[in-house]
Write a structure and sequence with these properties.
The protein is an alpha/beta fold and 357 residues long. It folds into two domains: 3-162, Beta Polymerase, domain 2, CATH 3.30.460.10; 231-354, no CATH class. It has helices at residues 10-44, 58-68, 91-104, 149-161, 171-211, 221-228, 234-244, 256-262, 268-290, 302-314, 318-330, 335-347; strands spanning 50-55, 82-88, 106-107, 113-114, 129-135, 138-148, 247-249, 297-299. Helix 4 runs antiparallel to helix 5 (171-211) and helix 11 packs across helix 12 (335-347). It starts with 9 loop residues before the first helix and ends in a 10-residue tail after the last helix.
Length: 357
Amino acid sequence: MSENQYHLDAHCEAILEEYREHLPEFQAAGDKVYGKLKKVFDEAGLIVASIEYRVKTEKSLAGKLELKGSKYATLGDITDILGLRVITFYSDDVDKVASAVDRLFSVDWENSVDKRKLHEIDSFGYMSLHYICSMKGFPYRFEIQMRTVLQHAWANMNHDTGYKSGVEVPREYLRNLNRLAGMLELADEQFSLIRNELTDYRRRVQALVASGNLAEVPLDGDTFRSYLSLGPFDTLNRRIAAVNQAEIQPVNLMNYMSIFKFLKCKTLGDIDRLIKEQSEAAYQLACYQIGLTDLDIISSSLGPQDICIAYILRSGGGKLGIKMFFDELNGVSESNASIAEFLVEETKDLPFMNNKQ
Protein backbone atom coordinates (compact mmCIF):
# COMPACT_ATOMS: atom_id res chain seq x y z
CA MET A 1 0.00 0.00 0.00
CA SER A 2 1.44 3.40 -0.89
CA GLU A 3 2.09 6.00 1.78
CA ASN A 4 -0.69 8.36 0.71
CA GLN A 5 -3.31 5.67 1.28
CA TYR A 6 -2.71 5.94 5.03
CA HIS A 7 -4.28 8.95 6.72
CA LEU A 8 -1.18 9.82 8.73
CA ASP A 9 0.51 13.09 9.60
CA ALA A 10 4.24 13.62 9.06
CA HIS A 11 5.10 12.48 12.58
CA CYS A 12 3.27 9.16 12.19
CA GLU A 13 4.73 8.69 8.72
CA ALA A 14 8.20 8.98 10.25
CA ILE A 15 7.33 6.26 12.78
CA LEU A 16 5.99 4.04 9.99
CA GLU A 17 9.15 4.58 7.96
CA GLU A 18 11.27 3.59 10.96
CA TYR A 19 9.17 0.43 11.22
CA ARG A 20 9.87 -0.42 7.57
CA GLU A 21 13.60 0.06 8.03
CA HIS A 22 13.77 -2.17 11.10
CA LEU A 23 11.20 -4.82 10.14
CA PRO A 24 13.88 -7.52 9.53
CA GLU A 25 15.22 -6.89 13.04
CA PHE A 26 11.77 -7.45 14.54
CA GLN A 27 11.39 -10.71 12.63
CA ALA A 28 14.87 -11.89 13.71
CA ALA A 29 14.12 -10.92 17.31
CA GLY A 30 10.90 -12.93 17.19
CA ASP A 31 12.84 -16.03 16.16
CA LYS A 32 15.41 -15.41 18.90
CA VAL A 33 12.90 -14.87 21.70
CA TYR A 34 10.91 -17.92 20.60
CA GLY A 35 14.08 -20.03 20.61
CA LYS A 36 15.11 -18.82 24.07
CA LEU A 37 11.68 -19.60 25.52
CA LYS A 38 11.49 -23.05 23.95
CA LYS A 39 14.98 -23.93 25.14
CA VAL A 40 14.38 -22.94 28.75
CA PHE A 41 10.99 -24.73 28.84
CA ASP A 42 12.54 -27.91 27.43
CA GLU A 43 15.39 -27.79 29.94
CA ALA A 44 12.95 -27.29 32.81
CA GLY A 45 10.62 -30.03 31.59
CA LEU A 46 7.81 -27.50 31.38
CA ILE A 47 5.25 -28.58 28.79
CA VAL A 48 3.20 -25.77 27.30
CA ALA A 49 0.38 -25.90 24.78
CA SER A 50 2.05 -23.47 22.38
CA ILE A 51 4.47 -20.61 21.91
CA GLU A 52 3.34 -18.16 19.26
CA TYR A 53 4.74 -14.91 17.96
CA ARG A 54 3.93 -12.35 15.34
CA VAL A 55 5.30 -9.07 14.06
CA LYS A 56 2.61 -6.43 13.60
CA THR A 57 1.88 -5.83 9.91
CA GLU A 58 2.36 -2.44 8.32
CA LYS A 59 -1.38 -2.11 7.77
CA SER A 60 -2.09 -2.89 11.41
CA LEU A 61 0.51 -0.43 12.64
CA ALA A 62 -0.81 2.28 10.32
CA GLY A 63 -4.31 1.73 11.71
CA LYS A 64 -2.99 2.09 15.23
CA LEU A 65 -1.17 5.28 14.33
CA GLU A 66 -4.29 6.69 12.69
CA LEU A 67 -6.20 6.22 15.94
CA LYS A 68 -3.66 7.29 18.53
CA GLY A 69 -0.40 8.18 16.85
CA SER A 70 0.02 11.29 19.01
CA LYS A 71 0.68 9.03 22.01
CA TYR A 72 3.97 7.83 20.56
CA ALA A 73 7.10 9.93 20.25
CA THR A 74 9.03 7.19 18.44
CA LEU A 75 8.58 3.62 17.27
CA GLY A 76 10.20 2.53 20.53
CA ASP A 77 7.16 3.73 22.46
CA ILE A 78 5.00 1.10 20.74
CA THR A 79 5.63 -2.07 22.72
CA ASP A 80 3.57 -4.59 20.74
CA ILE A 81 5.26 -4.44 17.32
CA LEU A 82 6.70 -7.82 18.30
CA GLY A 83 4.26 -9.87 20.36
CA LEU A 84 4.60 -13.37 21.75
CA ARG A 85 2.05 -15.55 23.47
CA VAL A 86 2.74 -18.57 25.66
CA ILE A 87 -0.30 -20.78 26.27
CA THR A 88 -0.13 -23.23 29.16
CA PHE A 89 -2.30 -26.20 30.08
CA TYR A 90 -2.50 -25.29 33.77
CA SER A 91 -3.04 -21.97 35.53
CA ASP A 92 -0.13 -22.45 37.94
CA ASP A 93 2.18 -22.98 34.96
CA VAL A 94 1.54 -19.36 33.97
CA ASP A 95 3.61 -18.31 36.98
CA LYS A 96 6.39 -20.74 36.00
CA VAL A 97 6.46 -19.25 32.50
CA ALA A 98 6.52 -15.75 33.99
CA SER A 99 9.49 -16.69 36.16
CA ALA A 100 11.35 -17.98 33.13
CA VAL A 101 10.57 -14.80 31.17
CA ASP A 102 11.85 -12.70 34.07
CA ARG A 103 15.15 -14.65 34.08
CA LEU A 104 15.61 -14.44 30.32
CA PHE A 105 14.70 -10.82 29.64
CA SER A 106 14.52 -7.42 31.28
CA VAL A 107 10.92 -6.77 32.29
CA ASP A 108 9.47 -3.26 32.28
CA TRP A 109 7.38 -3.71 35.43
CA GLU A 110 5.82 -0.25 35.25
CA ASN A 111 4.17 -1.07 31.91
CA SER A 112 3.55 -4.78 32.48
CA VAL A 113 0.10 -5.89 33.61
CA ASP A 114 -1.17 -8.86 35.62
CA LYS A 115 -4.76 -8.94 34.42
CA ARG A 116 -5.49 -11.90 36.68
CA LYS A 117 -5.80 -9.40 39.54
CA LEU A 118 -8.65 -7.47 37.94
CA HIS A 119 -11.33 -9.82 39.36
CA GLU A 120 -14.04 -8.41 37.13
CA ILE A 121 -17.07 -10.59 36.47
CA ASP A 122 -16.43 -10.88 32.74
CA SER A 123 -12.63 -10.72 32.80
CA PHE A 124 -11.82 -14.44 32.58
CA GLY A 125 -10.65 -14.42 28.97
CA TYR A 126 -8.41 -11.48 29.66
CA MET A 127 -6.83 -12.83 32.84
CA SER A 128 -3.43 -13.17 31.25
CA LEU A 129 -0.05 -11.81 32.24
CA HIS A 130 1.31 -9.16 29.89
CA TYR A 131 5.03 -8.52 30.28
CA ILE A 132 6.77 -5.74 28.40
CA CYS A 133 10.31 -6.98 27.83
CA SER A 134 13.62 -6.04 26.30
CA MET A 135 16.76 -8.00 25.54
CA LYS A 136 20.37 -7.21 24.86
CA GLY A 137 21.13 -6.50 21.20
CA PHE A 138 17.57 -5.51 20.25
CA PRO A 139 16.72 -1.81 20.60
CA TYR A 140 12.94 -2.19 20.90
CA ARG A 141 10.68 -3.52 23.62
CA PHE A 142 8.30 -6.40 22.94
CA GLU A 143 5.29 -7.97 24.63
CA ILE A 144 4.91 -11.50 25.99
CA GLN A 145 1.40 -12.64 26.95
CA MET A 146 0.92 -15.69 29.17
CA ARG A 147 -2.42 -17.42 29.64
CA THR A 148 -4.01 -20.86 29.89
CA VAL A 149 -5.65 -22.84 27.11
CA LEU A 150 -9.10 -22.17 28.54
CA GLN A 151 -8.41 -18.46 28.95
CA HIS A 152 -7.17 -18.35 25.37
CA ALA A 153 -10.23 -20.23 24.08
CA TRP A 154 -12.57 -17.93 25.97
CA ALA A 155 -10.80 -14.79 24.72
CA ASN A 156 -11.21 -16.01 21.14
CA MET A 157 -14.87 -16.96 21.61
CA ASN A 158 -15.57 -13.72 23.40
CA HIS A 159 -13.94 -11.76 20.61
CA ASP A 160 -16.03 -13.60 18.01
CA THR A 161 -19.27 -12.43 19.65
CA GLY A 162 -18.25 -8.89 18.75
CA TYR A 163 -19.67 -7.26 21.85
CA LYS A 164 -17.96 -4.55 23.85
CA SER A 165 -20.53 -3.76 26.51
CA GLY A 166 -23.88 -4.79 27.90
CA VAL A 167 -25.55 -2.25 25.64
CA GLU A 168 -24.69 -4.16 22.45
CA VAL A 169 -25.78 -7.60 23.68
CA PRO A 170 -29.15 -8.38 25.32
CA ARG A 171 -28.77 -8.86 29.04
CA GLU A 172 -29.83 -12.52 28.97
CA TYR A 173 -27.06 -13.40 26.53
CA LEU A 174 -24.49 -11.38 28.43
CA ARG A 175 -25.47 -13.21 31.62
CA ASN A 176 -25.06 -16.60 29.95
CA LEU A 177 -21.65 -15.61 28.59
CA ASN A 178 -20.52 -14.53 32.04
CA ARG A 179 -21.83 -17.76 33.58
CA LEU A 180 -19.81 -19.69 31.03
CA ALA A 181 -16.73 -17.61 31.86
CA GLY A 182 -17.18 -18.54 35.52
CA MET A 183 -17.45 -22.23 34.65
CA LEU A 184 -14.26 -22.08 32.60
CA GLU A 185 -12.44 -20.26 35.37
CA LEU A 186 -13.53 -22.94 37.84
CA ALA A 187 -12.39 -25.63 35.40
CA ASP A 188 -8.98 -23.95 35.14
CA GLU A 189 -8.65 -24.00 38.93
CA GLN A 190 -9.80 -27.62 39.19
CA PHE A 191 -7.38 -28.89 36.54
CA SER A 192 -4.49 -27.39 38.50
CA LEU A 193 -5.87 -28.70 41.78
CA ILE A 194 -6.26 -32.24 40.40
CA ARG A 195 -2.74 -32.18 38.98
CA ASN A 196 -1.32 -31.06 42.32
CA GLU A 197 -3.27 -33.76 44.16
CA LEU A 198 -2.00 -36.41 41.72
CA THR A 199 1.55 -35.15 42.21
CA ASP A 200 1.14 -35.45 45.99
CA TYR A 201 -0.33 -38.93 45.56
CA ARG A 202 2.64 -40.06 43.46
CA ARG A 203 5.05 -38.74 46.06
CA ARG A 204 3.23 -40.61 48.83
CA VAL A 205 3.23 -43.77 46.75
CA GLN A 206 6.93 -43.49 46.00
CA ALA A 207 7.63 -43.04 49.72
CA LEU A 208 5.53 -46.11 50.60
CA VAL A 209 7.21 -48.21 47.93
CA ALA A 210 10.66 -47.08 49.02
CA SER A 211 9.80 -47.90 52.65
CA GLY A 212 8.67 -51.40 51.73
CA ASN A 213 5.06 -50.93 52.93
CA LEU A 214 3.77 -52.58 49.77
CA ALA A 215 0.62 -54.03 51.30
CA GLU A 216 -0.69 -50.47 51.72
CA VAL A 217 -0.12 -49.50 48.08
CA PRO A 218 -2.99 -50.11 45.64
CA LEU A 219 -2.05 -51.47 42.23
CA ASP A 220 -2.34 -48.86 39.49
CA GLY A 221 -0.21 -47.42 36.72
CA ASP A 222 1.73 -45.01 38.93
CA THR A 223 2.34 -47.46 41.75
CA PHE A 224 3.35 -50.30 39.43
CA ARG A 225 5.81 -48.02 37.62
CA SER A 226 7.37 -47.09 40.97
CA TYR A 227 7.50 -50.76 41.93
CA LEU A 228 9.26 -51.72 38.69
CA SER A 229 11.92 -49.11 39.44
CA LEU A 230 12.96 -51.34 42.37
CA GLY A 231 13.74 -54.21 39.97
CA PRO A 232 11.50 -56.82 41.68
CA PHE A 233 12.21 -59.46 38.99
CA ASP A 234 15.96 -58.84 38.72
CA THR A 235 17.05 -61.57 41.12
CA LEU A 236 14.98 -64.22 39.34
CA ASN A 237 16.07 -63.04 35.89
CA ARG A 238 19.74 -63.12 36.85
CA ARG A 239 19.32 -66.63 38.22
CA ILE A 240 17.64 -67.77 34.99
CA ALA A 241 20.26 -66.05 32.82
CA ALA A 242 23.03 -67.86 34.71
CA VAL A 243 21.76 -71.19 33.35
CA ASN A 244 23.18 -70.36 29.91
CA GLN A 245 25.38 -67.45 30.93
CA ALA A 246 22.92 -65.37 28.94
CA GLU A 247 22.60 -61.64 28.61
CA ILE A 248 19.39 -60.02 29.89
CA GLN A 249 17.65 -57.75 27.38
CA PRO A 250 15.59 -55.09 29.25
CA VAL A 251 12.03 -54.57 28.03
CA ASN A 252 9.14 -52.48 29.28
CA LEU A 253 7.16 -54.51 31.82
CA MET A 254 4.23 -52.09 32.29
CA ASN A 255 1.95 -54.45 30.34
CA TYR A 256 2.22 -56.87 33.27
CA MET A 257 0.12 -54.55 35.42
CA SER A 258 -3.03 -55.82 33.70
CA ILE A 259 -1.72 -59.38 34.03
CA PHE A 260 -1.33 -59.09 37.80
CA LYS A 261 -4.79 -57.56 38.00
CA PHE A 262 -6.01 -60.54 35.95
CA LEU A 263 -4.44 -62.74 38.65
CA LYS A 264 -6.48 -60.85 41.31
CA CYS A 265 -3.61 -58.81 42.70
CA LYS A 266 -4.97 -55.63 44.27
CA THR A 267 -1.86 -54.21 45.94
CA LEU A 268 1.87 -54.20 45.33
CA GLY A 269 2.07 -56.43 48.39
CA ASP A 270 0.06 -59.08 46.53
CA ILE A 271 2.57 -59.01 43.65
CA ASP A 272 5.52 -59.10 46.02
CA ARG A 273 4.06 -62.14 47.77
CA LEU A 274 3.41 -63.82 44.43
CA ILE A 275 7.05 -63.32 43.44
CA LYS A 276 8.33 -64.80 46.70
CA GLU A 277 5.96 -67.79 46.53
CA GLN A 278 6.49 -68.60 42.84
CA SER A 279 10.13 -67.70 42.13
CA GLU A 280 11.45 -71.24 42.68
CA ALA A 281 8.72 -72.71 40.49
CA ALA A 282 9.35 -70.05 37.84
CA TYR A 283 13.07 -70.90 37.90
CA GLN A 284 12.33 -74.61 37.37
CA LEU A 285 10.03 -73.73 34.49
CA ALA A 286 12.65 -71.47 32.90
CA CYS A 287 15.34 -74.16 33.26
CA TYR A 288 13.08 -76.57 31.41
CA GLN A 289 12.47 -73.96 28.68
CA ILE A 290 16.06 -72.89 28.02
CA GLY A 291 18.28 -75.45 29.78
CA LEU A 292 18.91 -77.57 26.70
CA THR A 293 19.26 -74.62 24.32
CA ASP A 294 22.20 -72.40 23.48
CA LEU A 295 20.13 -69.26 24.04
CA ASP A 296 22.49 -66.48 25.06
CA ILE A 297 19.99 -63.60 25.37
CA ILE A 298 16.82 -63.65 27.45
CA SER A 299 14.16 -60.98 27.85
CA SER A 300 13.62 -59.37 31.24
CA SER A 301 9.98 -60.39 30.80
CA LEU A 302 10.86 -64.09 31.19
CA GLY A 303 10.89 -63.89 34.98
CA PRO A 304 7.44 -62.30 35.44
CA GLN A 305 6.00 -64.48 32.67
CA ASP A 306 7.10 -67.70 34.31
CA ILE A 307 5.98 -66.49 37.74
CA CYS A 308 2.48 -66.00 36.34
CA ILE A 309 2.49 -69.35 34.50
CA ALA A 310 3.73 -71.19 37.59
CA TYR A 311 1.04 -69.59 39.73
CA ILE A 312 -1.72 -70.52 37.27
CA LEU A 313 -0.51 -74.11 36.95
CA ARG A 314 -0.08 -74.62 40.69
CA SER A 315 -3.47 -73.06 41.38
CA GLY A 316 -5.22 -75.50 39.05
CA GLY A 317 -5.89 -73.01 36.28
CA GLY A 318 -4.95 -75.62 33.69
CA LYS A 319 -5.09 -75.10 29.94
CA LEU A 320 -7.87 -72.52 30.09
CA GLY A 321 -6.02 -70.43 32.67
CA ILE A 322 -2.79 -70.46 30.64
CA LYS A 323 -4.66 -69.62 27.44
CA MET A 324 -6.41 -66.70 29.14
CA PHE A 325 -3.04 -65.51 30.44
CA PHE A 326 -1.52 -65.41 26.94
CA ASP A 327 -4.71 -63.84 25.56
CA GLU A 328 -4.33 -61.05 28.09
CA LEU A 329 -0.58 -60.69 27.57
CA ASN A 330 -0.29 -60.96 23.79
CA GLY A 331 -3.83 -60.60 22.48
CA VAL A 332 -6.33 -63.29 21.57
CA SER A 333 -4.88 -65.87 19.17
CA GLU A 334 -5.67 -69.44 18.17
CA SER A 335 -2.06 -70.38 18.90
CA ASN A 336 -2.49 -69.52 22.58
CA ALA A 337 -4.59 -72.65 23.11
CA SER A 338 -1.83 -74.80 21.58
CA ILE A 339 0.83 -73.14 23.73
CA ALA A 340 -1.32 -73.70 26.84
CA GLU A 341 -1.84 -77.37 26.01
CA PHE A 342 1.89 -77.85 25.44
CA LEU A 343 2.85 -76.16 28.72
CA VAL A 344 0.37 -78.13 30.80
CA GLU A 345 1.55 -81.40 29.28
CA GLU A 346 5.28 -80.68 29.45
CA THR A 347 5.35 -79.30 32.99
CA LYS A 348 3.20 -81.89 34.75
CA ASP A 349 6.22 -83.86 35.96
CA LEU A 350 8.34 -80.90 37.04
CA PRO A 351 9.08 -80.75 40.80
CA PHE A 352 7.03 -77.65 41.46
CA MET A 353 3.89 -79.37 40.15
CA ASN A 354 4.22 -81.97 42.91
CA ASN A 355 4.01 -79.18 45.46
CA LYS A 356 0.91 -77.38 44.31
CA GLN A 357 -0.69 -74.61 46.30
